[in-house]
Amino acid sequence: MTTTIDTSTLLDWISRFRDAVTEKREWLTELDSAIGDADHGANMTRGMAAVVEKLDGGAPATIDELLKTVGMTLVSSVGGASGPLYGTLFLRMGMAAGAVEQVDSAGLAAALRAGLDGIVARGKAEAGDKTLFDAMAPAVDAFDVAVAREIPIADAARGAADAAAAGRDATLPLVARKGRASYLGERSAGHLDPGAASMAILFETLAAAIAGAS
Ligand SMILES: [Mg+2]
Predict the structure, then answer these.
(1) Of the residues 27, 54, 150, 177, which has the fewest C-beta atoms closer than 10 A?
(2) What is the mean pLDDT of the chain?
């Protein structure tokens, strides 16, 4: 059973995320049509296609450079809020991991936490604002708790994915307080947040990549 994450597992994660947002493009667009500007499916699909194309041209050997490439490509290829936010997530993860070829579960936990902190610094989102934070924060918390309990990394990642999905579902009744959806006020209630939906996909594919490496 794997106890570390290396660059090939991260590349598999990125590739799975690209596949999943492409497959769920219409759903993400539908969610964003209800409370946003209907571009989230297209944005995530275009951004991740650009990322995979960039990495196919030669993937960096260290985790910091790999994740920096992902982040910079998302920032430069995706407009709206999601490009800078997802870009920041990967950039901060890379900085936290450093110039290494693999991280253990504590290292991955620290990188995910740094990514979350970067999103908070950038978007000023808080719990219950109906943003991607509402899926990511419980996932990072669950991963931290699992790592502290010395739960195997694949199980920790599975728990984080489940927490992200629960966080996504919990955005359904919320009234948006951040982003374009907040302009709708009470009418934003009754819809899942599209950013929380794509964030849950990010954690689902992370769990799948780690399980695949086990
Ligand atoms: Mg949008």
Answers:
(1) 150
(2) 95
Domain boundaries, the chain: 4-213
Distance 40 CA to ligand 1 centre (A): 5
End-to-end CA gap in the chain? 5
Helices (H), 78-193: 82-97, 105-123, 133-148, 153-169
- Specify whether the backbone of 11 is left (phi greater than 0), alpha (psi in -120 to 50) or beta: alpha
Q: How far is the CA of 180 from the centre of ligand 1 (A)?
A: 8
The class of domain 4-213 in CATH terms is mainly alpha
Question: What are the tens digits of pLDDT across the range 184-209?
Answer: 888 989 999 999 999 999 999 999 99
| DSSP annotation of 60 | -
pTM: 0.97
